Amino acid sequence: MKNAIAITRPTLKTKGFSTHHIDIFSYILLGKTNREINLMLGYTRRSHAVVDHSRKVMYKLLALEELCRKDNKSRVTYPRQYQFWWKKLLDKHMPALLSVAIAPCFYEGDE
User: Fold this and answer.
1) Angstrom distance (rounded) from CA 59 to CA 79
2) Do 108 and 76 touch, CB atoms closer than 8 A?
3) What percent of the chain has pLDDT over 70?
4) Which pLDDT belongs to residue 35?
5) Closest-CA residue to 97 (of 33, 10, 20)
């Protein structure tokens, strides 16, 4: 697992995976709408950040489960319909996700 961290960290500033992504996905699993999440986090009303960030988490979970994206496209497109399935995967793989995720404070001050 240490190799995954070493390989991932240098590219995080441009293509990063952070704990913020996991938080957004957790809000979706709690039943919050995209607009509610946008409002809570300060994104514009029509922002696609919630969708993009949550997909990053879903794709990582699929990879950890060794499941094909193509076979699970509906689960990624409609995560709220499969929220209990996603919640089970998230709980199962949370330590692995947190081991490669960077806290948002890492990005502060660079801009």
Assistant:
1) 12
2) no
3) 79
4) 92
5) 20
Measured distance CA(65)–CA(87) in Å, rounded: 13
Q: Collect all residues with Cβ–Cβ distance below 8 Å to 24 and sequence separation of at least 6.
A: 37, 41, 49, 50, 53, 54, 57
Residue 44: pLDDT over 80 = yes
Residues 18/100, Cβ–Cβ less than 8 Å: no
Cβ distance 53 to 21 under 8 Å?
yes
Better-predicted residue by pLDDT, 46 or 64: 64
Helix (H, G, I), strand (E, B) or coil at 33: coil
Nearest to 61 by CA among 28, 33, 37, 31: 28
* pLDDT value of residue 18: 87
* Calpha distance 85→80 (Å, rounded): 10
